[in-house]
TrEMBL record:
Name of the molecule in the record: DUF1129 domain-containing protein
InterPro entries for the chain: DUF1129, MFS_trans_sf
Entry annotated with the keyword Iron: no
Pfam family of the protein (one): DUF1129
Alphabetized SUPFAM superfamilies for the sequence: BH3980-like, MFS general substrate transporter
Region called Disordered, residue ranges: 1-29
Source organism, top-level taxon: Bacteria
Lineage: Bacteria, Bacillati, Bacillota, Bacilli, Lactobacillales
Species name: Companilactobacillus suantsaicola
Spans through the membrane: 120-141, 153-171, 191-213, 219-236
Keywords from the named record: Membrane, Transmembrane, Transmembrane helix
């Protein structure tokens, strides 16, 4: 029985060595292809792929590309084309019809630029500033007496907007991830609860801040502040090229 086990281990080791050698050989061939001269790669093309290259070159020239530009583009495709040719994948299967590939080259689709976290944070914070400013303005307009707790001052508005902006931006970032990379709902809710508790604690602490540091505005002042914040946000989104939505 021990002899059978040794024989199995030996065969497994040989199989592993063969797979490793095959992988090393594949990497070597790939390295040779990508370091080869374009003229040499042209010679390695199958008849179908050579015809594909000929037609692609023709389409590019007809679409206004210069001969040097078309050659440079096609030379850049040759390593990938030859590599897949070895695997039995022809160019028309790899790139699609010649006309389609030519259109992709002539009119490349630009990938949307991803906005950094800080940009989305400022964008969302400005939106909340406008919303809270509108709300504070309504409260000031409908209240006959000033708020003795001083929780609706301009400093409260700024910090609260920043806190909400950070929390919602983080949440949106998590929701935009692939499902396999998203944190569990339990963890997400826990973070949101912690953030909400932090905001309520902040609001409670603001009751002890003097009006000299956290001055309140009248209704007109809050409405004007809200309008200015929204206008700044509009310009900021345009400047940063932000396409993401704040709310899902």
């Amino acid at each position: 029985m021990s002899e059978d086990l040794r024989e199995k281990n030996k065969k497994a080791a040989q199989k592993q060595q063969a797979a490793s050698a095959k992988s090393d050989k594949k990497e070597e061939v790939t390295s040779q292809i990508y370091s080869a001269d374009a003229d040499d790669l042209h010679k390695k093309l199958s008849n179908k792929n050579a015809e594909y290259v000929f037609k692609l070159n023709k389409y590019l020239l007809e679409n206004g590309f210069k001969e040097e530009e078309a050659k440079e583009i096609i030379d850049g495709l040759l390593p990938e084309m030859v590599e897949n040719q070895i695997k039995g994948i022809p160019a028309n299967q790899l790139y699609g019809p010649v006309t389609q590939k030519a259109q992709e080259i002539a009119h490349p689709v630009k990938k949307p630029k991803k906005t950094p976290f800080w940009g989305l944070w400022i964008d969302t914070a400005l939106l909340f500033f406008a919303l809270f400013g509108l709300l504070y303005g309504i409260v000031a307009l409908t209240s006959k007496k000033a708020d003795p707790n001083n929780q609706t001052g301009i400093l409260t508005l700024i910090v609260l907007s920043l806190m909400w902006g950070a929390l919602l931006t983080w949440f949106n970032d998590q929701m935009r991830l692939p499902k396999s990379q998203r944190p569990g709902w339990g963890k997400t809710i826990a973070y949101l609860v912690v953030g909400m508790v932090g905001m309520f604690l902040f609001l409670g602490a603001m009751a002890f801040v003097p009006t000299t540091i956290n001055p309140t505005l009248n209704s007109v002042g809050y409405f004007v502040s809200a309008a200015i914040a929204y206008a700044i946000r509009f310009g900021f989104r345009k400047y940063m090229g932000i396409k993401e939505r704040t709310f899902f």
